[in-house]
């Protein structure tokens, strides 16, 4: 459940535990049971109890849990629940803003995905990424936009969000983490739009996307998978690389070590 194959991470509310098996069966790379934004403030305790009951009898695939942010009333109880259950393989920590936020979760022994949702989180990215236990980074686009004071769905907002993606990508690489996961895309009834968004994130170095609806799973997975033409080209490069030394040509393109590495990455993604 953890690892490089998380092209899709599908949210499901903890208050609706009957949806968790359906989310697991959707084909998503991972399921994130949400105790934070998807649960109203007056339903946090009952949602936690519902998740506890589900996990007590769950013998299926492991899950991630998005807990409430450090400093909120539910944080300690959420963390204790996750630590008790082997089927919780990872914790998504919202509003991560410091290395100490991550260390407060690391004692659970679970993989951690910090969710960057503020300017403070962006400034502390390198410190956050360096804490042992962090698996990869992600971010909350809506909360981050609100914190930065930018107007959504505008060219300017897209430019700023791309800069934030760049920061996540570089910090992840520098810390030796798995590639980051892109934020949710609010559209789920337009497969072409979802596919295009996923493919753009893939081209920016991201490994996958957070999903809010099962309909997004298939187009997002397609968007993060190499095109058939890319796979065919990569096979040609690797076949030629086994029989030649130094630089050589494939389909009129000069191939050297960096191009071979790119072909290898394409084939890994295809698998």
TrEMBL record:
Record keywords, A-Z: Lyase, Magnesium, Metal-binding
Transmembrane regions listed in the UniProt entry: none
Example GO biological process: oxaloacetate metabolic process
Residue sites binding Mg(2+) per the record: 117, 143
Residues at which substrate binds: 66, 117
Residues covered by the HpcH/HpaI aldolase/citrate lyase domain: 7-214
Organism whose genome encodes this protein: Marinobacter profundi
Keyword Magnesium among record annotations: yes
Names of the cofactor(s): Mg(2+)
Source species taxonomy: Bacteria, Pseudomonadati, Pseudomonadota, Gammaproteobacteria, Pseudomonadales
Protein's UniProt name: CoA ester lyase
Pfam families registered for this protein in UniProt: HpcH_HpaI (PF03328)
InterPro entries, per database record: Aldolase/citrate-lyase_domain, Citrate_lyase_beta/mcl1/mcl2, Pyrv/PenolPyrv_kinase-like_dom, Pyrv_kinase-like_dom_sf
GO MF terms held by the record: lyase activity; magnesium ion binding
């Amino acid at each position: 459940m953890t690892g490089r194959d998380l092209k899709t991470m599908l949210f499901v509310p903890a208050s609706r535990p009957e949806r968790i098996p359906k989310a697991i069966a959707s084909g998503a790379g991972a399921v994130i049971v949400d105790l934070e934004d998807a649960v109203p403030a007056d339903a946090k305790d009952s949602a936690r109890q519902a998740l506890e009951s589900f996990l007590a009898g769950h013998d299926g695939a492991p899950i991630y849990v998005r807990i409430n942010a450090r400093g909120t009333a539910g944080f300690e109880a959420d963390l204790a629940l996750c630590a008790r259950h082997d089927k919780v393989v990872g914790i998504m920590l919202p509003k991560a803003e410091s290395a100490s936020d991550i260390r407060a979760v690391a004692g659970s022994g679970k993989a951690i995905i910090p969710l960057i949702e503020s300017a403070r989180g962006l400034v502390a990215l390198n410190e956050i990424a360096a804490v042992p236990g962090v698996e990869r980074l992600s971010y909350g686009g809506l909360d981050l936009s609100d914190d930065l004071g930018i107007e959504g769905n505008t060219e300017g907002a897209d430019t700023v969000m791309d800069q934030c993606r760049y920061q996540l990508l570089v910090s992840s690489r520098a810390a030796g983490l798995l590639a980051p996961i892109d934020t949710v895309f609010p559209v789920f009834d337009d497969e072409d739009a979802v596919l295009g968004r996923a493919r753009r994130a893939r081209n920016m170095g991201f490994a996958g996307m957070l999903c809010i609806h099962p309909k997004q799973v298939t187009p997002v997975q397609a968007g993060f998978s190499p095109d058939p033409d890319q796979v065919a080209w990569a096979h040609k490069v690797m076949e030629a690389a086994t029989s030649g030394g130094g630089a050589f040509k494939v389909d009129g393109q000069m191939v050297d070590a960096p191009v071979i590495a790119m072909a290898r990455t394409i084939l890994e993604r295809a698998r």
